[in-house]
């Protein structure tokens, strides 16, 4: 809303759009005084003209103030169908918003890259989870096989199958041998 304020200020000074109005003439007439400080007869005849000019300026000033309000909608575009179809409208829109378009494209590239990386990470996680479950099953299978081989009955069976060993099952239970410790 700076432009209407500037116009209003310039109208109060008597200048609109770089053209000077009659305010400059009034200032020149006000300087015309005789040596005693009294106005000459020419100036008294022009008092009615200045009053009319002042009323016109104030009415114009009031009209501008009424027209220039913050409620005003944007002025209707002067674009023609030929300009829109010809691409002038699109070109001007792109030219005015080029940095926004660059930012949106950059954010889209980042979004696609992050999504791709996330998808790759998800595939890697599922592959590692499958590998982990396979390793757990192999460990459980190995543990059960080891437990089966370490049973006493299985050890005895293996010893009887291999006759070259001298190990036999003891007939007496084990006993504790007391040992004295020397200090």
How would you summarize this macromolecular structure in one to three sentences?
This protein has eight helices and two strands; from the N terminus they run H-E-E-H-H-H-H-H-H-H. It starts with a helix and ends in a 22-residue tail after the last helix.
Strands, helices and their partners?
Elements: H1 2-13, E1 15-16, E2 19-20, H2 23-30, H3 41-45, H4 47-67, H5 81-86, H6 88-96, H7 98-150, H8 152-161
Antiparallel strand pairs: 1-2
Helix pairs in contact: 1-4
Helix content: 55-70%
How many DSSP H or I helices? 8
* Sequence stretches where pLDDT stays below 50 over 5 or more residues: 1-34
- Strand-pairing-aware structural class: mainly alpha
Portion in beta strands: under 5%
Main sheet attributes: strand count, strand direction, barrel closure = 2 strands, antiparallel
The number of E-state strands comes to 2
Shape descriptor: rod-shaped
Average pLDDT, to the nearest integer? 75
Distance between termini? 106 Å
Elements, N to C (H/E): HEEHHHHHHH
């Amino acid at each position: 809303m700076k432009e209407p304020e500037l116009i209003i200020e310039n109208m109060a000074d008597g200048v609109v759009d770089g053209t000077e109005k009659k305010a400059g003439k009034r200032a020149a007439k006000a300087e015309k005084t005789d040596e005693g400080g009294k106005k000459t007869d020419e100036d008294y005849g022009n008092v009615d003209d200045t009053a009319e000019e002042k009323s016109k300026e104030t009415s114009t000033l009031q009209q501008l103030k009424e027209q220039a309000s913050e409620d005003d909608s944007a002025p209707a575009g002067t674009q023609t169908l030929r300009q829109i179809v010809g691409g002038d409208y699109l070109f001007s829109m792109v030219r005015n918003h080029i940095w926004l378009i660059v930012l949106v494209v950059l954010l889209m590239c980042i979004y696609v890259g992050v999504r791709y990386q996330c998808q790759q990470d998800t595939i890697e996680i599922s592959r590692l989870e499958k590998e982990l479950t396979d390793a757990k099953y192999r460990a459980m299978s190995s543990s059960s096989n080891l437990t089966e081989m370490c049973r006493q009955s299985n050890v005895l069976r293996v010893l009887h199958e291999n006759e070259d060993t001298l190990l036999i099952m003891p007939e007496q239970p084990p006993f504790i041998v007391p040992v004295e410790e020397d200090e």
